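We treat protein structure as text, and this decision shapes the records that our systems exchange. The tokens are whole numbers drawn from a learned vocabulary of local backbone shapes. One such record is reproduced below, unchanged from the form in which we store it:
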Amino acid sequence: MTKRISVSMPDLTHEKLQRWADIEGTSLADLAAYLLRRDVEIAEKEGKLRYSDENSTDNS
């Protein structure tokens, strides 16, 4: 299952992300979703995210 969110960002950040998405041949939304997933995984590995049930870390 997937969830939708709305994000506000400065115009320049949007332009840079759009340029990156164009280079990668993907949509801005898909690039943003990938970047968020990647950073959540990094935060988990660095121990920045803790879960009440340590056996279940797939809360996406």
